[in-house]
Amino acid sequence: MFDSGLGGLTVVRALRSALPDEDIVYLGDTARVPYGTKGPETVIRYALGCSRHLVARGVKAIVIACNTVSAVAPDHVRAALDVPVLGVIDPGARAAVAATSSGRVGILATAGTIASGAYPRAVATQSTRVEAIGQAAPLLVPLAEEGWLEGDVPRLAVERYLAPLADAGVDVVVLGCTHYPLFRDLIEREAQRMISPNVRIVDSARATADDVVAFLNDRGLRADPRPTGGSIRVCVTDRSGQFHAIASRFLGEAIEAPELVDL
Amino acid sequence: MFDSGLGGLTVVRALRSALPDEDIVYLGDTARVPYGTKGPETVIRYALGCSRHLVARGVKAIVIACNTVSAVAPDHVRAALDVPVLGVIDPGARAAVAATSSGRVGILATAGTIASGAYPRAVATQSTRVEAIGQAAPLLVPLAEEGWLEGDVPRLAVERYLAPLADAGVDVVVLGCTHYPLFRDLIEREAQRMISPNVRIVDSARATADDVVAFLNDRGLRADPRPTGGSIRVCVTDRSGQFHAIASRFLGEAIEAPELVDL
After folding, report:
1. What mean pLDDT comes out for the span B181-204?
2. What are the residue boundaries of the structural domains of chain A, listed by start?
3. Which end of chain A is less enclosed by CB atoms within 10 A, N or C?
4. Would you place residue A223 in the very low, low, confident or very high pLDDT band (cuts 50, 70, 90)?
């Protein structure tokens, strides 16, 4: 699995829970984070670099944990490297389509993901009667990395980002960035107040884990059960002082010191 | 001149005003922005890449417009490349020492700049009777890039960042990141309320421009006056859709399309 930074550890967390026997190599491109504010050529170039590194480590499949990368790069990675590639957008779109009654789903994501139009396309392949309304919510990324998860600043930011979705009449809000699950309670509370008490929040991490389970079962690639379970190896491209605080906040379990790699 | 992104265009603006006849090549490493959250090894590696690119273009001197880079990389760039290098921290520290009466100056900067201890060191070389108190203010960078310059969110963030400086009894606040001048009025207003009506705000961009003038005069490197003035050439490593909005916000004048370079 790779991600622009450490946010994808929320997907590792879901994957560990669904697939406890798999060995997971996680590569966080912390030297070049964030990707969400950057253009597609740059994101594709970085995604290829990360994927080559993982293939060289002998992985059997690559999960792109980053929504921004999943929005623009999977086909390029599949074309360049002979490895199965799974992203987070199709599972998120599928879960959103399953959850909506009104046929209007809101997508909170980075500027790059929204600009790509990947969620509306993924929703359209699931159902012609569901419309996806995108809203870039870029400040939630630095707020999550700073640990400003509660209080007036994140609440006002969430309120500002939800307002256009409330106006558009959505009944589902997709957390379309791996950082946003850290604001899940806040987003749910504000969405219930601003949109409807019955609004549904979709976190694509769990839907992605289900997708990976199905993929490994289909291909007969599941690891055999082991008493100790699978391992997690975390690699980063920049070893900043905040790694442990951020990593444990996202992963929800203690973690070994990361390995530094140069792409 | 180079910077981690486009924030350094505030320094270009000051430099253009002080040195209208110089040709300026500005390299914004927008593909890897921000540097402020990253560790020193990564920042030094990126600074060397940017500097090599500028040297290959035949510049007579390099101005590091980024505080984070100026905090950790100038000596490494000077050692690796035979080119004069000027940073933004020494000028900012000098201006702060000149402005303080209480002998306590506050520094708002990125996490990387604060962790480096570069401002306290630079202040100490200017005066043994002045103490620098650092406060990381990382959220101001994404707020500036999103254009959230007014309203409750930036006000509450500024209030939170100024509180420890108010407690420490500073009478000067240094804007130790190229993005922060965009919040100058807000920071000044809040600092006057929280610290003292006589608090002084120091923006290192102007002090840096004065330093570059003195350096070029000393070396006899000033460009001859030209009726049309000098040129600005802006290069970026990622061409995101927001370039023009951000660039004109920081530079204060219209600008040609940037050249895309691959480092």
Report:
1. 96
2. 2-87+206-260, 89-204
3. C
4. very high
How far apart are the CA of A41 and the nearest CA of chain B, in angstroms? 8
Indicate if B66 belongs to the active site. yes
Q: Which of B39, B153, B237 sits opposite A157 (nearest CB)?
A: B153
Average pLDDT on B43-55 reads 97
The structural architecture, per CATH, of the domain A89-204 is 3-Layer(aba) Sandwich (3.40)
Looking at chain B, the whole-number percentage of residues with pLDDT higher than 70 is 100
Cβ separation of B153 and A141 shorter than 8 Å?
A: no
Measured in angstroms, the CA of B49 and the nearest CA of chain A are apart by: 14
Alpha-carbon distances, residue A150 vs A2, A66, A147, A200, A207 (angstroms): 28, 24, 8, 21, 26
CATH T-level assignment (fold) for domain A2-87+206-260? Rossmann fold (3.40.50)
Q: CA B86, B90, B96, B99: dihedral to nearest 10 degrees?
A: -70
Q: Which residue from A minimizes the CA distance to B155?
A: A153
Give the confidence band of B245 by pLDDT, cuts at 50, 70, 90: confident
B39 and A141 within 8 Å at the Cβ level: the answer is no
From the list A33, A139, A146, the residue facing B146 with the nearest CB is A139
Contacts of B5 in chain A (CB under 8 A): none
Which tens digits make up the pLDDT trace of A104-155? 999 999 999 999 999 999 999 999 999 999 999 999 999 988 889 999 999 9
Phi, psi of A135 (to 5 degrees): -140, 115
Q: Quick check: A242 contacting B, CB < 8 Å?
A: yes
pTM of the model: 0.89
Residue B168 at interface with chain A, using a CB cutoff of 8 Å? no
Residues 6 or more apart from B49 whose CB is under 8 A from it?
B29, B263
